[in-house]
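Reading group handout, session on sequence-to-structure problems. Before we discuss, look at one worked example. The prompt was deliberately terse, the way you'd type it at a terminal:

> structure Rho-GAP domain-containing protein

The input record follows.
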Amino acid sequence: NHLYTKACQQEDLFQTPGLQDDLQSIIDCLDTSIPESIPGSNHSVAEALLIYLEALPEPVLCYELYQRCLECSHDSRLCKQTMYLICYLCYLCMFLFQFLFTTIDVTYTELTMESKLCSSVAVYL
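And the output record:
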């Protein structure tokens, strides 16, 4: 959210490296709390985000969707379809997160949830 609210118009945001001291301060800050403000320059915050994303064990965009994005990059219509799929999957993940953390009386079994999700996602694939 920090980058969205404070750095949307920043030039060369993900192209200019951050300062090493800033990066360490940002990492320490985010490792210990959820701060209201993040120390350092916008470039340092952007670089810290890239470092975090590179360190994830799995990519944010699964390999299958990444390959699909590459394959459709020449056709704007296919790009739009793929973006709708990605947006749908993000919406679905947000819904599940909210559902799982707000439902006290869980009436769905894992198999029921899996079958509902698979049939729902299959429509977009």
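Points for discussion. First: The mean pLDDT is 76. Second: Residues 63-122 form one domain.
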